[in-house]
Structure formats: C-alpha cells, structure tokens
Design goal:
alpha+beta, globular
Length: 118
Amino acid sequence: MRRRNGAAREVRGDVERLTSGDIHAELGERATLVQFSTSFCQPCRATRRILGEVAEMVPGVAHVEVDAESRLDLVRSLNILRTPTVLVLDASGRIVRRASGQPRKADVIGALGLAVGE
C-alpha cells in the first residue's frame, strides 16, 4: 500500500466526466487537477502546495480543491475513499488519472502529460 500511496493510476471501466457545475469551479483550458480534501487532513496541505505549483508551471491547467465533507454526494458517486484524492481531468472533463494519498510532483507532471496529450 505504501508503494501505491499517491501514485497516479489509470482510470478503468466507464470513464467519468466532470463539469464545472460538478466541482463548482471552472475547468482548465488544457487540464484540471481536482483535489478532494478534508479540514483535518495533514497530507492535504502538502498536496495543495504541490498541485498549486504544478498548475502555475503548466499553462492552461487549473487546480480545484473540493471539500469532501461538504460534497458527500460527489465523493460517493466517484468512490472517493480517502483524502487527499487527486483526479486529473483532460480539457473535456474526462478523468484520465486518479491518485489516493499525497502524490509526488513528478507523478503529477507525468499524469498531466497524458491528460494534455504530450
């Protein structure tokens, strides 16, 4: 489990699409990093910093943080089991990668490359 912690994995089966209405924020032009967090989660703070830095580095990428406690409907529909959970969306809102736990910056950048087609 420790090895998989924070590692972005491919989303299999029926791929979900999220809209700006689902996450209550605008999607990025090229990709969106959606972070599910809770107020008591220490790794969520570090994840917020990492995703924010990556979003600033890559043009057209947005970072959106969703409070899991206030959005239980979305958490349940996406089968989010722990925080932080990060979803990497392509420009159309399709979930292309998913990571549970604090991701490494290099993994986030790699997942973004797949989302934007580079």
